[in-house]
Amino acid sequence: MDLLGKLFSRALKLSTLPTKKKRDAFSQQRKVLKKLLKKSANTQFGLRFNFYEILVQFSSGNKKVFYDFYKRRVPVYTYNTLYNEWWYRLKEGEADVTWPGKVQYFALSSGTSDASTKYIPITEQFLKANKKIGIRQLLSLAHYKLPKDLLGKGILMLGGSTHLHKTETYYEGDLSGIQASKIPFWFQYFYKPGSRIARNRDWESKLNDIVESAPDWDIGFIVGVPAWLQILLERIIARYQLKTIHDIWPNLTVFVHGGVAFDPYRKGFEKLLAKPIIYIETYLASEGFIAYQAGPGRKGMKLILDNGIFFEFVPFNEQNINASGDIVVNPKTLMIHEVEEGVDYVLLVSTCAGTWRYMIGDVIRFVDKAQAEIIITGRTKHFISLCGEHLSVDNMNQAIKLVAEELNIIIKEFTVSGIAHDTLFAHQWYIGTDHVIDPVVVSDLLDEKLKLLNDDYRVERTSALKEIFVTILPSQSFYDWMRYRGKEGGQNKFPRVLNKKLHEDWKAFLNQ
To answer: Any idea where the GH3 middle domain is (predicted)?
Structure first.
């Protein structure tokens, strides 16, 4: 093991030593919000909503009254409302708007719900917070039984281009590109594909460069979105006529993934391996490093409660989220100590990037409240309830996984849209697989699994939800559409639910 590997090993050992007991979840979040408000009290946003008055409440005998004031003073924001009222000034170079100073970086994010590009402000404090959690997650590897010789092996991070576009007042690009400029010097030794390849903005060219460089690397860890990493590994195996990826990277042991649920990809992914590997889920969004899987056998990912993000939780129901997936005015919001296990919540975040009570669009569920562990169950706009079936992305992922297992096929991608059918409704599914399969067989089995997973769906299948249509497509169709829309690679994901406009675009693309 080289010197850096030994230092890494030493750091892992130190991370397992007993530490001072942390505050409870409520106290951690109370402290975070107080620091955020104090830091931003003299910004235009802080003065507008009187952060000083909210800060006074932290000295009250009632330790929870500060949150009542915060909720009453500061409205809930979506991207459009926050950008149109405040963030557009940041792009013009104005200082002290929603966070002290000027914003030098913007992460470009278009998500999966619409085609418009979002500009998410990235501050130095935000980058430091992300780096801190990245190191914390790295040190959490001490909880896994890793081979000693794994330490010091290469870490392949398959993300967007690290090239940043410079404007008159700021830099813009993928979050991975912004963070790459802040990578610690010692990490450069482990980091693959290296700065030259990582800067490449042409996804196809980048994949080809990685494939050609693959024999020169000793990779122990891979990091990225499952679909794109699977494509990369398949190309490497084909290029060098291998049986599995372990023939070229025998030390590959850990896969850190995020962005989408991994279960639908697992069967196809594991066919590329010669031996089991460790899977670690992470939740890193443009709005912050939200959670990560803190150890083996955990039920979910641990929310990061002490590092620059204040969380609020909106019960995901008709009273708070309308049929279009938009949040209502003055929704019911809860703090961390008020949540319950097994209930779906929409996340609001206030962060050290000048983000305040911002709905990021994700829906989560607590699986272990004591450990603040969550799973992602979907997005507010990625569910279908045409007639009360309340079908979530989590239901869809589980059903697809069960169908693939029962039919012994690999389903790489899928999407669904709610459509009108005669005078009632239907679901139109598109399933990406390279196996030859009867769509009627898939439709019947998919319908059966969804009825078992979702009682509301089962009831509506006897009334207003009349048909389930399935179209079988080559997997490549999904990736071609992503390329067509300029969303190939990086952190881009195919939308699991197509709204009316996206569905029309998708059909038009297929008809070409």
So the answer is: 303-369
